[in-house]
Amino acid sequence: MEKLEIVEIKAFVPAKNYDVSKAFYRELGFTLAADESGIAHFRCGNHSFLLQDFYEKDHANNFMMHMLVNDVDSWYQKILSSGIAEKYQVKVTQPEDRPWKMRDFTLNDPSGVLWRIAQNI
Predict the structure, then answer these.
(1) Which of 55, 69, 78, 103 could disulfide-pair with 16, CB 3.0 to 4.6 Å?
(2) b/e code 98-107 from CB counts within 10 Å (16+ = b)
(3) What is the pTM assigned to this prediction?
(4) Average pLDDT, the chain
């Protein structure tokens, strides 16, 4: 019997304003790999997600992405210095050490999706 393996798993992230969200993610550092029929494929290195031209407030406000990085403080400084929070009027919190042995901060996207950006400590 052949061993079944997963090649990739991608989340479908909702977008209230598809064009604004695409611009936000490009400025955050993701590369737009494809965009057709209301689905934008974003990549950063070997990691990716799909942005969809779909929005339901309750869904977006309860949607969370977790991004594990090697240097959370550098990501935080990059976001602060880019002015992305002010430009898109989104919330960003300060990095904190968590009891679950991670240091993280949160960033909301323009649709209300919460990104938890973290590193292991």
Answers:
(1) 55
(2) eeeebbbbbb
(3) 0.93
(4) 97
